[in-house]
Specification:
Elements (H helix, E strand, L loop, with lengths): L4 E2 L2 H13 L3 E5 L6 E10 L4 E5 L4 H9 L3 E7 L2 E7 L3 E5 L2 E7 L4 E4 L16 E4 L7 E8 L3 E6 L11 E8 L6 E14 L5 E10 L3 H23 L1
C-alpha cells in the first residue's frame, strides 16, 4: 500500500480541498467499536493545520468520536478509495454551527488500483522520456499520456528505424516534481494521428519492462499529483 500513500503537504491539501468541493461523503469509523459517523470536509485551514469536518446528527456517536484516540476516515473521490486517520478530534463552531476539527493528516491513502489507467501530464508541467539508441545521443521526447504499465508519445520523425516489438533499454523518464525514473521500454504500436493544428505525426505507444518497485512508486505518486491538480482546476 505504500505506493498509494500521499505524504507531501501539497498533495494532501489539494486532495482534501477536492473532497470539500462536491462535497464527497466521508465515513468516520471508530476502529474499536465499529460505530461510524457520516461526515464531509467543510474546510481545510493549512495555516492552522486544521481540517474541519461536518458534525453528525447523532449526539451519542458524536461524543464517541470526540473521545476516540483515533478514527479512520474513508471516502470515494472520483471512484478512487481515499482513506486517512484522524486523532485529537475537537468540537468547534464553524460558521455558527457545530463541527469537528482535527489536525491535517500526515498521510492519505489514495488507492488508485487501475494499473492500465493513463493520465495526460499538465501542459504547464510536461513530462519527457529520453530514449537511448545504440551509437546515438539520447532522444528526448514529450509524453502524451502515461500510466503504471506504459506510455505513449508523439514522434515527429525524430525516431529512426523503430518498429513494433523493439525494446529500448535504459530510457529515462523526467517527471515534474519527482525524481527521474530509469525504464526499459518496448514499443507495442505505431499509428498516424493528426494534431489540433493539423500536423501529421506518429503516435508511438509502449509498455515498461520489469519496472522496479521504486520506479512504480514514483510513477504512482506522479499520477496522483496530476489527477489531484486536474480535478482541482476543473472544480475551481
Amino acid at each position: 500500500m505504500e505506493k498509494y500513500l500521499l505524504h507531501t503537504s501539497r498533495e494532501i491539501v489539494a486532495l482534501l480541498k477536492a473532497l470539500a468541493k462536491k462535497p464527497d461523503l466521508i465515513t468516520a469509523r471508530l476502529p474499536h467499536t465499529g460505530h461510524s459517523v457520516i461526515t464531509a470536509v467543510l474546510d481545510i485551514l493549512p495555516g492552522r493545520n486544521l481540517l474541519i469536518l461536518d458534525y453528525g446528527p447523532n449526539e451519542s456517536l458524536n461524543n464517541e468520536l470526540l473521545a476516540a484516540e483515533r478514527i479512520v476516515c474513508t471516502a470515494h473521490h472520483e471512484m478512487v478509495e481515499t482513506r486517512f486517520n484522524c486523532s485529537n478530534v475537537q468540537r468547534v463552531k464553524y460558521k455558527g454551527a457545530p463541527a469537528f476539527a482535527v489536525p491535517v493528516p500526515d498521510s492519505v491513502l489514495y488507492l488508485q488500483r487501475r494499473g492500465y489507467f493513463r493520465i495526460k501530464p499538465l501542459i504547464s508541467h510536461p513530462a519527457f522520456i529520453s530514449l537511448m539508441r545504440d551509437g546515438e545521443h539520447p532522444l528526448k521526447l514529450q509524453i502524451m499520456d502515461i500510466g503504471i504499465k506504459g506510455l505513449s508519445l508523439a514522434d515527429r520523425g525524430l525516431i529512426s528505424k523503430v518498429s513494433v516489438g523493439d525494446q529500448i533499454a535504459d530510457c529515462k523518464l523526467t517527471l515534474p516534481a519527482n525524481p527521474s525514473v530509469n525504464v526499459n521500454f518496448e514499443i507495442r504500436y505505431i499509428t498516424d494521428i493528426s494534431t489540433k493544428n493539423g500536423e501529421s505525426v506518429q503516435r508511438v505507444g509502449g509498455r515498461f519492462i520489469d519496472l522496479n518497485p521504486n520506479g512504480e512508486f514514483t510513477l504512482q505518486r506522479f499520477i496522483n499529483m496530476v489527477q489531484i491538480e486536474q480535478h482541482a482546476k476543473l472544480k475551481s
